[in-house]
Amino acid sequence: MALTNEQYRTAYVFCAYGEFSQQYCEVLADRGIEAVNVDGGYRAIRVIKKKSREQLKKSLLLYAVTDRRWLKDGQSLKDVVKEAVDGGATMVQLREKSLSEEETIEEAKELKAFLSEKKVPLIIDNSIEVTLKSGADGVHLGQDDCPVRKARSRLGQSVIIGATAHNVEEAMKAQADGADYLGVGAAFGSITKSDAKPIVSLDEYKKITRAVSIPVVAIGGIDETNVIRLKGLGLSGAAVVSAIFSKDDIRKATEALKKDLDEFE
Predict the structure, then answer these.
(1) For the segment 217-234, what is each residue's pLDDT rounded down to a tens digit?
(2) Of 234, 249, 251, 196, whose CA–CA distance to 60 is shortest?
(3) Distance between CA 210 and CA 232 in Å, rounded?
(4) CB-based contacts of 18: which residues, under 8 Å, 6+ apart?
(5) Greatest CA separation found in the chain?
(6) Is beta strand 33-38 parallel, antiparallel or unpaired with respect to 62-65?
(7) Residue closest to 157 by CA, chosen among 9, 24, 47
């Protein structure tokens, strides 16, 4: 059951050997390869090559979160995501509550193929299953979703895990449980998420970024009129939805936000 050096260098290797034993998984781990439990069996292996914290921080600068409710006639999600990436979006989260799991997996696979070429990470909202089955780069978990520690146990160390936090206590717990980055908000309310809890004040961002060592992004009601208010708070970037995807010219709107966020660095 020996693997070639070329296979060891490949990011994803789907083998014809059947399920791996736990003992074999441990041998693979010693070679820097992680076996991932998919549908109850260790069938897929991937080289453990996680983004460094600095690389992840750069990818979080302009974090575009999808919302198909803004799609116009004839547009696909891939069409608008492409415009956003061409405008400077550095990370994309697939968050489509109206789709079934299977529909989300198919959407994720299509986006992943395109985004991989652009070297832009794809994050899945909430679902570990969709993350595993689509080959996405990571998952983002809210306070009421799967616990971060459990997700890390299931996903391993090579998958990016983001977690929502609203205060220092939640932020520190998420970091201790294995989160790679935090999404903190809502900064200025939210028109796309009615149950979004507002952050106490913008000063809370400074307290959180000083308390944790992982990157932190702001989310919630952020647009071209207020993004500059987030400067100087220790943030790595901002996650936006309608500020990009509701616009007639998505690329131009993204470019404008990116220009403001570049001043954070």
Answers:
(1) 999 999 999 999 999 999
(2) 234
(3) 12
(4) 41, 43
(5) 58
(6) unpaired
(7) 47
Q: Give CA separation, 28 vs 40, 43, 45, 168, 214, in Å.
A: 18, 13, 9, 37, 28
Q: Is the dihedral of CA 126, 128, 134, 137 positive or negative?
A: positive
Of 122, 145, 196, nearest to 166 (Cα)? Answer: 196
**Which residues make Cβ contacts (< 8 Å) with residue 149, sequence separation at least 6?**
177, 178
Cα(196)–Cα(52) distance, integer angstroms: 30
CB 166 within 8 A of CB 49: no
**8-51 pLDDT, tens per residue?**
333 333 333 344 455 555 555 544 455 555 555 544 444 444 56
Which tokens is 171 given?
């932020």
Please state whether beta strands 216-219 and 237-240 pair in parallel, antiparallel, or not at all (unpaired): parallel
What's the chain look like in SS3?
A: CCCCHHHHHCCEEECCCCCCCHHHHHHHHHCCEEEEEECCEEEEEEECCCCCHHHHHHHCCEEEECCHHHCCCCCCHHHHHHHHHHHCCCEEEECCCCCCHHHHHHHHHHHHHHHHHHCCCEEEECCHHHHHHHCCCEEEECCCCCCHHHHHHHHCCCCEEEEEECCHHHHHHHHHHCCCEEEEECCCCCCCCCCCCCCCCCHHHHHHHHHCCCCEEEECCCCCCCHHHHCCCCCCEEEECHHHHCCCCHHHHHHHHHHHHHCCC
Residue 243's nearest CA partner among 231, 225, 265 is: 225
Tokens of 13: 């290797």
Place of tokens 């549908």: 39
